[in-house]
Design a protein that fits this description.
homodimer, alpha/beta, six-stranded antiparallel sheet, 13 helices, 36% helix
Chain lengths: 412, 412
């Protein structure tokens, strides 16, 4: 008998049939004697639909003053799905009760559309469990001090799940998704990619923020912060999934655990700017103010004392970012602004990297052997990322996956 | 400068364009110096969509234990529309703020799906108005003592509007609909039907419950109870609409103000039941328990001491009602159960009827002159209803409309 938080994403509750399947799965655990708190996202497509409606009314992105209403709008999606899942559970003989963010008192800070959870009141959840009722909690939403609805950013229902799991001290927070776990690379690109039995939360954090869409990055931070064991597994098939842990399970970690990639990248270069303090912030300041997220940043100084400053943004933000940078070009006395919106990023991630030299070399050699040109390089303690031409993406992922012997054959 | 509640139904907020038009209209009043509290329904089709999803998950109608979740589900519709209307108002330079039922503390009793409003806390609304912010309140929903979401029944956003209007003591509660007011008859059936400048709330109550879909019956009760002046008018065109008043505006009331009709009726007759106490409740008890609404009830006793007991239900409930009645037929020792699901009801309504004799005769004569057979008759203080064959409906409405000289020509 175990105590679980079980979180189901939008695809898992995307139709009445799937909601029934979720209820059936949860009811199986409850009948077996487990205690389960369910967390659900909005039905797939629903948040997109609401967001599009909001965008149409606003004629664009919500301003600060409109963010409160955007949160009221977006949080309606989970309201429908928790009711439907609770109804399906009750119908299947497993009494259930839905909770909105404010009803389970998920208190957050005041930042609309990107609020952070401050506290959760678990009293009603525990009271339900004690009388045999399974609580179904809305992901993605909470309430600020003024009683206004707040949301945590797209995909953040995972964060609700882990926060509830931490507050309850459950045995395991299970994130049910449409994939059977975390893989050494995207199996659609690398045919012999392998499911990992476990990853550390630090690796998972790099993988999540690198575009491996399995988990929301903030939820992974919670695993590290509160030590909640989290397991990623499939809603649709049986299997153990992947355990995200706080500690190295084995003394001997593989140097590289997985290869992540993101496709929708673009880069902008400001050429020939004076290499003086403050240049970076004068370029990136206005970009940040426009709510454009900047990923990699690289600067090189040439022999003439002038620097080339390059950064990457999401492809959807490319045109806007380019306009902003071009508008400050004159003020910076830069020679030119160039850009490329057909690039992709490939990253090797692994905690074992810390104690091993030569990882970068092995990665670069593998790319060179396939004649793939590296456009940018960026490294962190447990990650090496390279930017390549978009058309080289698949070859690059496969080359690096092979170089670190991550495939199914390699372990056989 | 006036103080209004302005309520917009689902059709009026059914698309982004219409939401913009609603915001434009409200903003016009606010710019002119009026104080406005907006009440909105869910976007048209949305509550139906959610209700259908709930029905699919439940495989039928919600039981008592599922009604709490059904309310969570259904109330999500208004949550989206209040946010969108508030966003549109703010975008048009008229700062606005949305309120869910629980945020404006619309406290109700514990009856899910048919809750009644007990109190409204107007403090936040008045504070908003004082600082130039237009509140946008979700219709149809409130919160019970336990903090659970409750709803008031389909179409009950009008009730929210009138209750908020009563609590605030506004000058007028304006109900914007897809028709330009209350008519002497349905203009689609009676070409010379006339818009009424005013009706009494008692007349409106009969018209609302008789199938004139303009207003929700409960909202009209509030007009009588709290003396809130209410005006029904079109969202889409200019015009004065119809004022629903608590008092007779003129000393001299017309005998009949309007002719209402309902099309989707069915009747069931239990023939030859003993005329003893308790028969009616033994027939209607199980029908009511199945949540089937009974409208007209007529009983006649024949010479043999056996009674024919007839009642009408909505056509959608006919088959279920018939099964229920047939299941108690033996116990009642009734001779037969017969039914007809192709009937319609026509009613003449007018407060002037109280002081005038001969109204029924004039109505029946008009029908006889057109050779229309009357299947059932039912009367109240200010209303006479007849049931006719569905195919006679249009002729019956026109005949009675003419008989009481309600047409545009008659007043010219």
């Amino acid at each position: 008998m175990a105590f679980y938080v079980q979180k189901f994403g939008g695809t898992s509750v995307g139709s009445v049939e799937r909601i029934d399947a979720v209820a059936n799965r949860v009811a199986g655990f409850v009948r077996g004697g487990d205690r389960v708190v369910v967390v659900v996202s909005a039905m797939s497509g629903e948040t997109n639909r609401l967001e599009a409606l909001g965008g149409e009314v606003l004629r664009g992105h919500p301003s600060e003053t409109q963010a409160r209403e955007m949160d009221v709008l977006l949080s309606a999606g989970e309201q429908a799905s928790i009711a439907l899942v609770a109804m399906a559970l009750t119908r299947q003989g497993c009494p259930a009760r839905s909770y909105l963010g404010d009803q389970v008192r998920i208190r957050t800070d005041a930042n609309h559309m990107k609020a952070r959870i401050e506290s959760i009141d678990t009293e009603c959840l525990l009271a339900d469990l004690d009388r045999g009722v399974t609580p179904v909690v809305a992901g993605f939403q909470g309430m600020n001090e003024s009683g206004d609805i707040t949301t945590f950013g797209r995909g953040a229902s995972d964060t609700t799940a882990v926060a509830v799991a931490a507050a309850l001290g459950v045995d395991e927070c299970r994130i049910y998704t449409d994939v059977p776990g975390v893989f050494t690379a995207d199996p659609r690109i690398v045919p012999d990619a392998r499911r990992l039995d476990s990853v550390t939360f630090e690796e998972m954090l790099e993988l999540a923020s690198l575009g491996s869409k399995v988990l929301h990055a903030r939820s992974v931070e919670f695993v590290g912060k509160y030590g909640v064991p989290m397991r990623v597994l499939s809603s649709f098939e049986e299997g153990l999934g992947t355990l995200v842990t706080t500690e190295d399970q084995d003394m001997e970690q593989p140097v590289v655990s997985a290869i992540a990639h993101t496709r929708d990248e673009a880069k902008l270069t400001v050429q020939g700017v004076p290499d003086v303090p403050g240049v970076a912030s004068r370029i990136l300041g206005p970009v940040g103010e426009a709510s454009i997220e900047v990923d990699m940043i690289v600067q090189n100084v040439g022999a003439d004392g002038l620097a080339d400053f390059t950064f990457t943004v999401r492809r959807a933000d490319y045109e806007r970012a380019r306009e902003i940078v071009e508008s400050v070009q004159g003020e910076l006395e830069a020679r030119a602004v160039t850009g490329d919106d057909r690039i992709a990023k490939v990253s090797a991630v692994g905690v074992g990297m810390r104690s091993h030299a030569g990882v970068a070399t092995r990665m670069f050699d593998a790319l060179a052997a396939k004649n793939i040109n590296i456009l940018m390089i960026s490294t962190s303690e447990i990650k090496i990322s390279v930017v390549v031409d978009e058309h080289s993406l698949e070859a690059a992922v496969n080359a690096i996956h092979d170089a670190f012997e991550l495939g199914a054959d390699a372990t056989a």
